[in-house]
Structures are given as C-alpha cells and as structure tokens.
Amino acid sequence: MPTTDPRVDAYIAKSADFARPILEHLRAVVHAACPEVEETMKWSFPHFMYKGMMCSMASFKAHCAFNFWKAELLMEREQINREAMGHFGRIASVRDLPAKKLLTAYVKQAMKLNDEGVSAPARAKAATPRPLEIPDDLNAALDQVPAARRHFDTFSPSKQRDYADWLNEAKTDATRMRRREQAVEWIAEGKSRNWKYEKC
Question: Exposed/middle/buried for 155, CB within 10 Å: 0-12, 13-18, 19+?
C-alpha cells in the first residue's frame, strides 16, 4: 500500500475535473515505479521525494504540469517541453503525457541519480534582466486607487513585471481592460499576480 499525504489527496480533490485523472495517473505511476517515495507539499503543490527532491506535479485552470528536479540529466534537450512550468508542456489530458513505460523509466532514472547523490545542474542566470516598464494605463489606474498604488510601489520588480507582462500579453483591448481592472483589485489587496499559487 503506497504511503500518501492527505494534503495531496485534498489538492487533487479541489483541482478541476479535467485535472484529477491526470494527477491521479501521475501519482500512481510514481508510486508504482518508486514504492519508497514520500509525498509532501512544497510551494503549494505536490512533490515526490526519494532521498531528496525527485519530481512534482501541479494543476492550473486549463492544464497540468509535471516536473523532474533533474530533468536535464534524464531527458534529451529536445525532449524537454518548456511551454509550461514542468518538462512536458501543457498537459490537458492523460493522452498528452508520455507512455506509462517511458514515465516509469524516467522515475527509475531519477531514483538512480538520487541514490548516487548526483546534484541537479545549476540553473544559468540571465545575463542582464530586461528593464522594467510599467504600462501607462496601469500606472494611471493605480493612481486612481491609493491603496493599490501604495502596495504596488512596495512590490519587488519581479512582482511588478508580472502585472505589466500580463497586461501587455492581452490580445484585445477588452481583455486588457478586464486584466487591468482585476490587477488593480488584487494589488489593492496586496496580492501578487500569482497569489493563488503562492504558499500561504
């Protein structure tokens, strides 16, 4: 009988309908391949531990993600899909995942790396961060709500950039306006753009 964490059960239960079969499948594959695996929650989403970090999964509004801590040592560069947070792109159904046999092989290779004490490769840092430019319409909207302006001015540059990028990625004026209104509401409450996924 696999050892499970009730917090992971709760995470799966509150995920969207499309996500639950994906998360349950990933969980089953990991436990079958690594019976000694331990479950935990880190950064508000499920992680699987075996002599250290091994892999993790997460669900979002329209997709799931699956991540190996040492993916660069397990997979060929061209196999890694960085379209989403994990290494397998935006997973919207179980069919979007590699075959169970391949996933199992990855888990077993990840176990071997941890058995041998191999460290995860260092992440290369960006040479020069791009300049932070706050859109004029966001600045104007923030100025209309003093609480939002106060909070925004205390945010780190990365949190400010998250909101700026979100607005600039809008494809239509209507979407941009909705995002701007939502942004000001969240900022007035002191929330970052990704507050739903941050650890409480």
Answer: middle
20 Cβ contact partners less than 8 Å away, ≥ 6 residues apart: 12, 13
Burial 12-46, CB ≥16 within 10 A → b, else e: beebeebbeebbebbbebbbebbeebebeeeeebb
- Range with lowest mean pLDDT among 13-22, 103-112, 163-172: 163-172
**Spatial distance between the Cα atoms of 80 and 154, rounded to a whole number of angstroms:** 36
Cα end-to-end distance, the chain, whole Å: 31
**151 contacts 183 by C-beta, under 8 angstroms:** no
Which pLDDT score is estimated for 82?
56
1-43 pLDDT, tens digit per residue, is: 678 899 999 999 999 999 999 999 999 999 999 999 999 998 8
Domain 6-115 bears CATH identifier 3.90.1150: yes
Q: Where are the domains of the chain?
A: 6-115, 136-197
The alpha carbon dihedral of 132, 133, 135, 141 has a sign of positive
**pLDDT at res. 198:** 60
Look at the chain and count its residues.
200
pTM (predicted TM-score): 0.59
Residue 54: phi, psi to the nearest 5?
-125, -55
CA distance 76 to 59: 25
